[in-house]
Each structure stands twice: as C-alpha cells, then as structure tokens.
Design a protein that fits this description.
Elements lengths: L4 H14 L11 H13 L5 H12 L4 E3 L1 H6 L11 E3 L7 H16 L3 E5 L20 H15 L9 E6 L5 H5 L11 E7 L1 H8 L3 E6 L2 E7 H15 L3 E4 H6 L11 E2 L6 E2 L4 E8 L4 E2 L7 E2 L1 H21 L5 H10 L2 E6 L1 H7 L7 H29 L7 H5 L2 H4 L3 H10 L13 H6 L14 E7 L5 E7 L1 H9 L17 H11 L11 E3 L7 H11 L4 E2 L1 E3 L34
Parallel strand pairs: 2-3, 3-4, 4-5, 5-8, 11-14, 17-19
Antiparallel strand pairs: 1-11, 2-11, 6-7, 8-18, 9-10, 12-13, 15-16
Helix pairs in contact: 2-3, 2-11, 5-6, 11-14, 13-19, 14-17, 14-20
C-alpha cells in the first residue's frame, strides 16, 4: 500500500531536517530518532534507562513534539544548539559594539538558533557619533548588515532562518523602521516589531503629539495617530511590522523583579532578556482526542496532565545536555532555566470534537485544556525544585508576587512556597510548523486549519524544491471514516474566520501562558486598510502582548490553498523561520 501524501511529507521533513546522517546504525525512521533523543536527554537522570523509556513513550504517536533543534541535535555529534529561541545582548552604540554583536549573532545562527535584537540602542540616522564625530547611518542600515550575514550562513541550509528586530515607538528612526520592508527582497531574514508602550496608545487615543527621543534628546515631534496609521498601513501592505505591547510584556514577566524585556525570538513566542534562550516542545492535542468525530468525543485531560509532567522533566533535562553558542547564553539559561512547552494541533483537535474554532465553546475548550497544562506544568516544576533545587534567580517573595504566579491555584502556590520553582517560565506556544508537518500535517500551533488541502514546497538538500499536495490531518482522518458526505462545519479555515475571532481565541488561551503565543491574524485580500488599526487596538484592549496580521497577497510566497500553486511560504513550516507573520500574546 502506497503511503499517503501526508506520510510522504512527514518522511521528507524527517529525512531533511531531523534524521542524524552520521548515526550508526543509520536511523531508518522517525522512531529511531525518538530513541536517540530520549536516550540523550535521559542521560542526566539517575536512572537513564527508566527515563529514556518514559520519554520515548511520550514521543511515540507524535504526542510530545520536541522543538526542531532538539530533534535534530540531541544525541548527535553535531556542534549545534538545542534551543530554538535566543535574544541577544543590548547592542552598544559604537562600531566595536555593533560588530561584536554581529559576531555573536553569527555564531548563534551558525549553531541553529533564531535570534532577536532590540535596535533601539543605536543612534538615529543623521546624528553625530560622540567618539568620531561622523554622521550615524541609523538602525535600519545596520539591520541590512545582519540580514546579509544571515543569508550567507543559511545559503546552503534546508531550514529557514530568521531574526527579529524590534524598535521603540519613540525612537527617531521609527518611521524608517516601519517602512523598511516595503521594498522587495529587503531584510528578508528579519521579522519586524514595534515596541509599543501604553503611553503611546494613550497618545493615539487622545490624538496627542508624540516626541521622538534618543538619549533624552527630543529630535522631533509627530502626531501619534499619524505614526499609528503608518504602522497599520505598512502591516496591511506587507505584513510588517507587528506590534509588541512592551509594558504588558514586562508587567506579566515572572522575573520582572530582576530583568527587563525588549526583544523576542523571531516568532515572538518568547520575550527574553539579554542572552536569553529557551528550549521548546509542543503537545499535539489531536493525539489526545478520544472517540474523534463521535458524540462522546473528548480530550483526555488525565493523559495530557501526565504528558505535561513528562514534558517538563524532558525539557529540564534537555537544558542540562544542551550546547550553547556563547558562554553568556549558557549562564543565562541556567540562571532562569526557562523552558517553553506549548500546544499544536489545536484546530484539528477542535474539529475532532465537533467544535468550531470561532465559537465560544471552541474557545472555552481551548482555555480549559491550556489551564490543565499550565497547572500540571507548574506542579511538575515545583516538584522538580524539591528534587533538584530552584533556579538560581528564584526569590520566593518576589516570584510569588508576580501577576501570572499570583493567579495560580492556591495549592500550586503553596507548593511553590515550600519548594521553589525549577524553571522561571514553562509555557510558550510556538508556530510548531515543521514538527506539525512531521506529525502528518496536523494543524500548526494555536492557528486555525490553514486549508483542507494545501501545497507545501520544501527545499531539498541539493537546493531544489519538492512540492507536496496534502490534506489536513484531521480532515484526512474524517474522510477515511466517511468516504462520502459533506464536510462538517467544524472544518473551517483561517481566512473564513473573522479577525475578532482570531483575537478572541488568542485572548482565551493567553491567561494560561507565561511566555507568549505565536499567532497570525489571517485576513482576506479584500479587508479594508482601516481595519488594521482596529485589530491592533482590540489586541491591546484584550490584554494581549502583541499582534501580527497577514493579508492575502501582502507578501510574495504565502501558503496557498490552490493545489496548482507552488507559491507557498516555507516559513510557515520552518521551525524558527516564521516570516509568514507572527504575533505574540
């Protein structure tokens, strides 16, 4: 019997991204990869054989999907990192500082990490440098240097590579930053996000003047609404920039007492401090649905709790065996022991339960399962702290006072009070693109089903392209059970969902995620330009940490539902190359 197109796609993704080509004996299939990863991660345990088998049991059936860097690197001889997410140090405003930061970024990308930078520390174009007296070229010009570096390092890679650039909304070069990706083939390895403050949002609401400032010097003043309009119009035209509500990000940070956040990883599911990083994994919710498509269909919460406990231990162990490109990154990783457990297959799971993604019952189901995962993750981390000790930056009084921790159930807070926490942060919902393809094209992350049938073009190791025409995993399962009959209403795709319903799903899950959520608001080509401002403003009102939109036709290479089209954005399937649009909540 010939394998399904989805199985062929999954095998191609495994062979080109995750298989260890140097393994002896050779890895024959993904099960061999799971065994390698489980053994490598369990090696730090007192009973490696027991935990290797426990981790393997969670990996089987695509229930626990480790981040791509863990799958590709754990247990191999490759000099690669296991962390997908990095934010680099603040860029010193000098030639030495800029190129030192560039070197650190190059070393991190070379080992497989996606990186984020805040360019707000660089003086604006046209200003005088203190030391040399020369005229500065501004942040955007140096971003082009980073972009060229990334392109060079990844020119022979089968994986997408991406960086995040952020700039404060009051930086004098903010308008140039907002418009930076309008030109074709410009900054193609960057995602851009404006750091939007609450003060700026009030200025927009009040139609006030807005000063553009660097080092306490006001360069000029603009109308806040005019700047807001430029941000929104650029997002409409070319899906960039996104907005990050930086005050909320810092206000909700579990470590607000000892760090400041001004940048995220490329897909924005992890706001991180200088030299911060995070190891990722996702629970495939579709694998936990019992009696799918039947009247009694349900998510097995007991199994999800158990899998969450295993996943937290798995990621904490993976942090111990992980290599880091820079010693500062290793030090920071062990200072906080951040991990990022998320979900994928949400939309498929809802369809299997007969729930509409854009309905209140669908949102309630998503919120409930994320609450289960949050509670289980914090229980597991407190238990690990009892066994292994708390993360070094832990301060009981300060940590328990943080808003996210303060909202935890009383028994979990009591456990934290007794034992501390092994990990400062535990949860992040990544795009999970490639690993969702590996799981036979299950819906990605928290996103709706992109399309019932899509074409995925993926780069092959020889530099060519393979096009795969595939069906959504849940729909393929339903069609196998129902060879004839009309498609159920629960199989709704991203563009059929209104922008507000996208935001409401994000807002339903957000209270249970201590990191952030990579989410794109997919919009039809016909959406009005004026609607973008309403979407971004609504995201702020709903308490999200950020927002990104993607309008059909706004960028060449977007994922297509047309089986004849090869213009598919591989970034939607790349583990950290999420230039398709990303929002952080």
């Amino acid at each position: 019997m010939n394998p399904s197109p989805e199985a062929e796609l999954a095998r191609f993704v495994w062979e080109t991204r995750y298989r260890d080509p140097a393994a002896q004996p050779p890895e024959a299939d993904v099960t061999d990869t799971w065994k390698r990863v489980a053994r490598a991660v369990a090696a730090v345990e007192r009973n490696p054989a027991l935990w290797s088998e426990t981790f393997l049991s969670a990996l089987r059936g695509y229930r626990l999907l480790p981040g791509g860097r863990i799958l590709a690197g754990a247990g191999t001889e490759r000099n690669v990192t296991l962390a997908n997410c990095f934010v680099m140090a603040s860029i010193e405003d000098s030639i030495d500082g800029i190129f030192a930061a560039l070197k650190e970024g190059a070393l991190t990308i070379q080992q497989g990490g996606g990186i984020g930078y805040d360019f707000s520390t660089l003086r604006p174009r046209g200003s005088r440098a203190h030391a040399s007296g020369r005229v500065a070229s501004g942040p955007v010009s140096f971003m082009q240097v980073w972009d060229a570096m990334c392109a060079t390092l990844l020119s022979t890679s089968t994986r997408g590579g991406a960086m995040m650039a952020t700039l404060r909304c009051d930086h004098p070069d903010i308008e140039a930053f907002v418009e930076a990706k309008r030109a074709p083939d410009t900054l193609t390895h960057f995602n851009l996000s404006v750091l939007v403050t609450d003060k700026f949002m009030r200025a927009v609401s009040n139609d006030a003047e807005w000063p553009l400032v660097f080092e306490a010097h006001v360069y000029r003043t603009v109308r806040a609404r005019d700047l807001w309009t430029r941000i929104c119009h650029s997002a409409y035209d070319c899906a960039e920039p996104g907005v990050l509500f930086v005050d909320r990000i810092n206000g909700e940070n579990n470590l607000a007492y000892c760090e400041n956040l001004s940048a995220t990883n490329p897909c924005a599911e992890e706001p991180l401090p200088a030299y911060g990083s995070c190891l990722l994994a996702s629970l495939n919710l579709a694998a936990f649905v019992r009696a799918p498509f039947e009247d009694g269909a349900r998510l097995d919460e007991g199994e999800i709790r158990e899998a969450t406990h295993i996943a937290v231990r798995f990621l904490d162990d993976a942090l111990e065996v992980a290599k880091f490109p820079l010693p500062q990154q290793r030090d920071e990783a062990h200072r906080t022991r951040r991990i990022g457990l998320g979900i994928t297959g949400l939309a498929d799971a809802l369809a299997m339960l007969g729930l509409l993604y854009d309905s209140e019952p669908g949102r309630n189901a998503a919120a409930q399962i994320m609450r289960v995962i949050r509670d289980a993750a914090y229980e597991a981390s407190a238990d690990l702290a009892r066994e292994r000790g708390a993360f070094p930056a832990y301060n009981a009084e300060a940590y328990l006072a943080q808003p996210f921790v303060a909202r935890l159930p009383a028994p979990i807070r009591a456990a934290i009070q007794r034992h501390g926490m092994r990990n400062s942060h535990l949860l992040a919902i990544a795009p999970a693109g490639s690993i969702s393809l590996l799981a036979h094209n299950v819906s990605c992350g928290i996103e709706p089903i992109f399309g019932i049938e899509t074409v995925h073009p993926l780069r092959d190791p020889e530099g060519g392209q393979r096009n795969f025409q595939v069906t959504d995993a849940a729909y393929a399962m339903w069609r196998a059970l129902h060879p004839s009959g009309d498609k159920p209403l629960a199989f709704i795709d991203a563009e059929s969902i209104g922008a507000r319903d996208h935001l409401l799903m994000q807002a339903a899950v957000a209270p249970y995620v201590d990191g952030a959520i990579a989410k794109t608001i997919s919009l039809p080509r016909s959406v009005a330009k004026s609607d973008i401002a309403e979407i971004f403003t609504t995201a702020h009102v709903l308490g999200l940490k950020g927002c990104t939109v993607f309008r059909t036709g706004s960028r060449i290479g977007a994922l297509s539902r047309d089986a004849q089209s090869a213009a598919v954005r591989e970034a939607a399937a790349a583990e950290h190359g999420c230039t398709s649009g990303r929002s952080n909540d």
